[in-house]
Amino acid sequence: MVSKQKAVIEHELLDDYEVGDFFIETPKRTILGKGIFMHVPAGEPHQNQMEGLTERVAGALKKAKEQGHPRPIVTGAVPFDNYRKPCLHVPESIQIVPSLQQEEREVSSSAPVTVNRLVSIPSPERYKQGVMQGIERIRSGELDKIVLSRSLEVSLNKPIDLPKLLRNLAYQNKHGYTFAASIEYGNQKISLIGASPELLVSRRGMYAIANPLAGSRPRSEDPVENQRRKEELLSSPKDLYEHAVVVEAVVKGLRPLLKTIEVPEKPSVVYTETMMHLSTVIKGELLNADISSLDLAIALQPTPAVCGAPTEKARQAIAEIEPFDRGFFTGTIGWCDAEGDGEWVVTIRCAEANGDSLRLFAGAGVVSESKPEEELAETGAKFQTMLRAMGIHTEQLKDI
């Protein structure tokens, strides 16, 4: 009986989602925010938008409460580039219910979708050249790691059914973080939607959890081959090094904010519908109660899992090698309440949707032992999360 009641709640939340709403489902809860009660003010133009962001968020939450909001929380997305404005606001209404990820759920069968146009930016060949540039910078000692990404620009024969896409992502994404939010580029509003496997950081009371992922393999439908790939991943010097760089950076970012910190000696493996990843769950107790979930997120974002190391040198190299603007891809999306509790997710396995057009993103971590053709294949495998949810089959797409 409890399961059926929960299913009704979940059904209603997903049925209530409309384009422009904030939605996130995590292993613990599902949140739907509708309308805008108050925007979080941006920082000064041409300034680092992360400076003073937590104070602006706290001010918006306080002001919303003073103006009669019964349960103010801030929701939205923070971009990869610290100088681009975040899209954060207090929704007019908030619904929060327990997560139903472990319930049996059926993905909707999608009507046939025709891909009218598909462009990879950069081209697969140019992406491999970019990976070689990254490897050369690593071998010269300039970088320890760099994450290089590409995008797929897809035009369909009809407008994208975002509520159905969100439902399919949520139903397929049994252990991760499914999200949708409205973002802005100038005066244009578009939808950011995705199913990330990676928690940047969460805070509940005096305790924080971060769960960096780095080092990946595509999943196979053959259980024997899947096991072989898992064992290969757990013993791969290249992937273990890539993962260790990320864990070290996360620990370094969190340590000044934590009284205690727990870090497992070895990573484990987590699965998505299409990938397997090396995973480390880092836990700790906050130094004081004034440190919010957003404080923790800003201390970590971007991690080497989506940028590289050292961070600023990697970020500069990305700007020089990648021929497109990441926007909110590899930023963070989530929520924070007036007590400082919240969850922030790494914005990957995502797309920007507008009408009949979709821009997908995928990246791969590059270290000195990387091979360009393998990194290209990894980005292609990561695109499948969104493509499958849309009902676009691989055979429709050539050379992605």
UniProtKB/TrEMBL annotation:
Entry EC no(s)? 5.4.4.2
Q: What class of enzyme is it?
A: isomerase
- InterPro entries for the chain: ADC_synthase, Chorismate_C, IsoChor_synthase
Chorismate-utilising enzyme C-terminal domain spans which residues? Answer: 124-382
Superkingdom assignment = Bacteria
Give me the reactions it catalyses.
chorismate = isochorismate
Q: Which UniProt keywords apply?
A: Isomerase
User: What is the similarity comment for this entry?
Assistant: Belongs to the isochorismate synthase family.
Annotated protein name in UniProt: isochorismate synthase
Q: Organism, per UniProt? A: Solibacillus kalamii
